[in-house]
Design brief:
Layout lengths: L1 E2 L2 E2 L3 H19 L1 H8 L2 E5 L2 E4 H17 L7 H24 L6 H14 L4 H10 L4 H21 L8 H10 L9 E10 L6 H19 L4 H8 L10 E6 L5 H7 L11 E3 L2 E11 L5 E12 L7 H16 L4 H8 L3 H4 L4 E5 L6 H8 L10 E3 L2 E14 L1 H32 L2 E3 L2
Antiparallel strand pairs: 1-2, 3-4, 3-13, 5-6, 5-8, 7-8, 9-10, 9-12, 11-12
Helix pairs in contact: 1-2, 3-4, 4-7, 8-16
Length: 438
């Protein structure tokens, strides 16, 4: 467009020109030196590229996963399209995270890997060996985990901070949802999304709806759901065969809840419209849950914090001296009031009152769990300092009501985040400059 003698160039035109120059420079400017190293470009994503060899590697990984699950493979061109689209979305999120200054330190990465190994009852060395046995290098595992952590932090920053759940929302849900009183039924759901762009025309919307209706007919006639999701779904779970896992009614997006509560195993619901497109859900399985019984512990402690004058050795020494005085007949509560650095509990004789699982930091909770009633621990270290711990009582409590409230709160928040994330990712993709060379 020209105004007077001034030419105004569209931003996308500028971006395309820059990208073209970048590709030209990469492919031709230093062709003799770098052609073999760079390889063929599969897609340009903003100011970065996805190489064909990167796409091939990811397709190979996904193919192995699908074959291991004994699911029929979709046609190669469809699988490559799905994988490339996922890589584009991941690339856009990583670019946004980089601009936001989000990073993952080596310490964070190693700690996360150690936690995963521990949850699988392995040492880190055993976990590494198991990964190698399954054909995945430890470096690739760390790279994938780094990517997931960065993306999760980005989503938390972009979306999580805006999501609020009030007590009134929790109470209203529990008042109005009959399912909450039905001992928390769990649903195993499959999901397919036929996406519609934010500014789609009426013709595009009609085309997407027709495709969704056609898929529902085929699924009801016996077409494999996992295979269909792999081939046709635009959802982030497509490469998992559309499997949403087990969820209570609270965990299911609002637009599905009315349908899910009335569906039987194996049933495929009519397409559901949302701003993201048309959703198809299938009830894979249904099961119930038992009441939630927890062990509550009445506990008290004395805390000695470390500082410039009191190191770890001195803190332990002081606590052992206090433990000896208690054994000789001194009152624990009186010593806590006089010596504990936890001023809040010190006023109550060191009492933390009744606590449940997860209420206290892990080292404290683990040490507390090993104590008999009235037994006093050896000095225990946490991030707060050194503790002397005494268990006064234990009881099993039916925490079902409070547990359900927490489940509802978490589920409402999770649902809001999922719905907002879906829209955010679709907007991110629609607004980005992406050129595909396939």
């Amino acid at each position: 467009m020209v105004i007077g003698n001034l030419k105004i160039i569209d931003q996308n035109t500028i971006k395309k020109a820059i990208i073209s120059l970048m590709i030209y420079s990469l492919l031709f400017g230093s062709f003799l030196v770098r052609a073999e190293v760079l390889g063929k470009i599969a897609a340009v994503v903003e100011d970065d590229v996805i190489l064909e060899q990167e796409l091939d590697r990811e397709v190979s990984t996904i193919t192995q996963r699908i074959q291991a699950s004994k699911t029929q493979m979709p046609p190669e061109y469809i699988l490559r399209k799905q994988v490339l689209e996922k890589m584009i979305i991941d690339k856009l999120q990583r670019q946004l995270a980089e601009r936001a200054g989000i990073t993952v330190t080596e310490e964070m990465l190693n700690n996360s890997a150690a936690d995963i190994a521990q949850r699988n009852n392995m040492t880190l060395q055993q976990f590494r060996a198991e990964l190698e046995r399954q054909g995945m290098s430890y470096k690739n595992f760390l790279d994938n985990m780094r990517n997931e952590i960065i993306i999760n932090q980005l989503r938390s920053r972009e979306i999580g901070g805006r999501i609020k759940v009030t007590d009134r929302e929790v109470d209203h849900y529990m008042e109005t949802q009959e399912q909450i009183g039905n001992e928390a039924v769990q649903y195993h759901l499959g999901h397919i999304l036929i996406a519609v762009k934010e500014a789609a025309s009426a013709a595009d919307i009609q085309k997407a709806q027709s495709k969704a209706d056609d898929l529902v007919r085929k699924l009801r006639a016996g077409q494999d759901f996992t295979q269909t999701a792999l081939s046709d779904s635009d959802d982030d779970n497509a490469l998992k065969g559309g499997d949403l896992g087990w969820r209570t009614i609270n965990d299911i997006p609002t637009l599905f809840t009315d349908k899910v509560s009335k569906m039987s195993t194996g049933e495929v619901a009519d397409p559901v419209r949302s701003p993201s497109g048309f959703h198809i859900i299938k009830m894979l399985e249904v099961k119930g849950l038992d009441n939630h019984i927890i062990t509550k512990t009445k506990v008290r402690h004395i805390l000695i914090k470390t500082n410039e004058l009191i190191d770890d050795e001195e803190a332990q020494k002081r606590l052992l001296a206090l433990k000896a005085r208690i054994a000789d007949g001194d009152d624990f509560a009186a010593l806590a009031r006089a010596h504990s650095d936890d001023k809040g509990s010190a006023l109550k004789g060191g009492s933390l009152d009744w606590v449940g699982p997860g209420d206290l930091v892990k080292p404290f909770e683990e040490a507390m769990g090993k104590l008999d009633i009235n037994q006093i621990s050896e000095p225990v270290q946490t991030q707060f300092g050194w503790h002397l711990i005494q268990v006064l009582a234990r009881e099993n409590k039916d925490d079902s009501l409070e547990h359900k409230k927490n489940m509802v709160r978490d589920a409402i928040r999770k649902r809001k985040i999922e719905e907002e994330t879906e829209l955010w990712m679709r907007r991110l993709r629609d607004e980005a400059y992406v050129e595909i060379y396939q």
